[in-house]
Design brief:
Strand order of the largest sheet: 21-16-18-17-19-20-22
Helix content: 40-55%
Distance between the termini: 68 Å
CATH topology of the domain at 363-497: Glutaredoxin
Strand content: 5-15%
Largest sheet: 7 strands, mixed
CATH architecture of the domain at 363-497: 3-Layer(aba) Sandwich
Number of strands: 22
Radius of gyration: 37 Å
CATH class of the domain at 363-497: Alpha Beta
Length: about 775
Amino acid sequence: MEVKKLSLSWQFLIVLVLILQILSALDFDPYRVLGVSRTASQADIKKAYKKLAREWHPDKNKDPGAEDKFIQISKAYEILSNEEKRSNYDHYGDAGESQGYQKQQQQREYHFRHFHENFYFDESFFHFPFNSERRDSIDEKYLLHFSHYVNEVVPDSFKKPYLIKITSDWCFSCIHIEPVWKEVVQELEGLGVGIGVVHAGYERRLAHHLGAHSTPSILGIINGKISFFHNAVVRENLRQFVESLLPGNLVEKVTNKNYVRFLSGWQQENKPHVLLFDQMPVVPLLYKLTAFAYKDYLSFGYVYVGLRGAEEMTRQYNVNVYAPTILVFKEHTHKPADVIQARGMKKQVIDDFINQNKYLLATRLTSQKLFHELCPVKRSHRQRKYCVVLLTAEATKLSKPFEAFLSFALANTQDTVRFVHVYSNRQQEFANTLLPDSDTFQGKSAVSILERRNTAGRVVYKTLEDPWTGSESDKFILLGYLDQLRKDPALLSSEAVLPDLTDELAPIFLLRWLYSASDYISDCWDSVFHNNWREMMPLLSLVFSALFILFGTVIVQAFSDSNDERESNPPDKEEAHEKAGKTEPNFTKENSSKIPKKGFVEVTELTDVTYTSNLVRLRPGHMNVVLILSNSTKTSLLQKFALEVYTFTGSSCLHFSFLSLDKHREWLEYLLEFAQDAAPIPNQYDKHFMERDYTGYVLALNGHKKYFCLFKPQKTVEEEEAMGSCSDLDSSLHLGESRGKSSCALGSKPIKGKLSKLSLWMERLLEGSLQRFYIPSWPELD
């Protein structure tokens, strides 16, 4: 009896805690915080957020509760601006991506605990690894959502590869590979590999986009491209898979025969060169990942100290062969600019070392991007950055003025000054802007000190009065200007707007086209031979069906032609022609008989007056088939529409309407957002979105169940100018023999062709085999 009372008290306590949690979650309502309705559009939500953010920003609003209010506003906008989080909040009352899963888990644990208290089972019985907290805690911090994948993972994959696991609930294989996955994650994450986990049950859109149709699946992403892992899930295979994702030319093998050529490439590549000396015969994965992350800034080489002939390099650069050593070379190939040596180097140590040596002592400005990085815009008085620019002619060997400028840059100790040089013949507009109009600097080098004021190209600068020869007097004058500049920034008295630098290292158009073509062919090859065959089945089925139809048609045509030739006789040719002439009218008549002579199709216009009765409050089981048209295409499209749907007018469950695109474009575009495919990820917003032609679209709207089916015309033809003069058609359209004789019919054939497949689509609509797009509620038709 006492045990039963104790059990009841525990049950009451658990129920009370759950009620308190639910009440605390209900306190925060993002719709109430932003002051919008549950059916508000994204534009309304964004507008409300901007208004409230300006009003409650802590910098502008001195109210003590302004900061908390601003945090609530930001959190509410974060939930409602993301369709997935908004949907989760609408369904579960919380924006968590796995809220449904968590609730199921809590209920399951409650029942298990209750069962356990009554029957005294061993506690380990209820810790089966399916859906347990222990299992989820491993992957929790790596969970990916669709927006996070698109906005962060894909751009970051150009700097480091990502290893992603697709998992789900009640997956035996997922549990089997979990120990190996945990071990590999701990190792590869420390080397700089990105890790991600996608739960296919709650992130179906992302799993579909990645092409994962089964769990568990493991894939890699690099440079935005997806590659699937197809081998046994063991540590070594996964490590080799990540290594295979990296490009093969990241690290060059350097020996005593090619090290001079490798280090001398700084002038052509405009990059420092890095050498790693190690006892491993193969390049370490950590070094390859570092080379991939900094491939735009440095060139990497690897020296195997156990190779014959490596003693010459180790002796020349005084390298300790018993510990990994990294040397950075800049303009001087005989002496490294910086050295680091340690056993068991960590990624953070290497990253700090590389970041300190990303640029040459006097880097050549070869692009506008490099100019932004080396000479940033002034943000404040304490963040001033000055650039000393040497304007010189291009030369195969180092000239005396450049060597003197380089030695001056090497002796510089000011953090606020950067030294760069420009080839005047390659960047003529840039050089002419900084040089005075006199003939003093014709064919000679010059030095200019500048400070950037904005990203539009505005700079203040000071050009040395005399050409730069590299003499001691020139160095003394430049040093005096820099010392004076620290005390008086007004020394830079001249002002100009610099033009953008041309990208000197960009490949020519033909090479870019070849690179794009090779990438496309490589992607096709991978998709055919390495992707999931389940994805390829529809394509293969389509190809083989087309080939079968093509060859079948050719064979049938060949046999029919041979039979005709055997049966036909030359004297009977005239008779055959006469018979053919007689049957022509019958064929035409037979075809025309498909068009009803006395047909009537009632097509009403969908307006704000008829919207509620024809859609919102439409009886269950009834659908409204709506044609989208414009004023210029109204007559032609309605004629064709009535002709195509006439055979379906016998059904009392179908209603027919048309919608003016000129009046209700926003309503249509809101609806079509729910019919977008999730797989493609656009690189940029469509600039001609408002000019998109939706004439000829047909929507089958189910008002009661809140879904619609979409018909898109296969061909979009530009409407002729003469269509603009056509008069409007009545909402009730009669089909008669006089059809096609109106003045509009002369230029309406291409427009009518948009609805040529509508009857087949209507058959599929009645069969129920069309895809349905559900919406939360019908928007208002203003």
